[in-house]
Amino acid sequence: MRIPYCWICMDDGVVLYRKEAGEYVAHCICDAGREFEYKGKDYYVPSVEEILDPDEHARNNIKNWLDAHENNSEAKKELEQRGIKITMASKNI
What we know:
The protein is α+β, with helices and mostly antiparallel strands.
């Protein structure tokens, strides 16, 4: 069990998104996303800020992570060590 530093990309550096023509990738605005930035003549990897609302996406990822780990005392302990306290109100972000 690992707590992500970036709740937008979950430390992957990229976020996958769908458009009518298929699935695409956008680079994250965190340190992990820097290696995926590319503005070349062959193709362009947009920033997540251009594709979606990063705050809303992070909130959804936090909710999903909390739901997946709600009964895990180690997860709660590790969050508290990072200064994050979970209450019922915070689960309703």
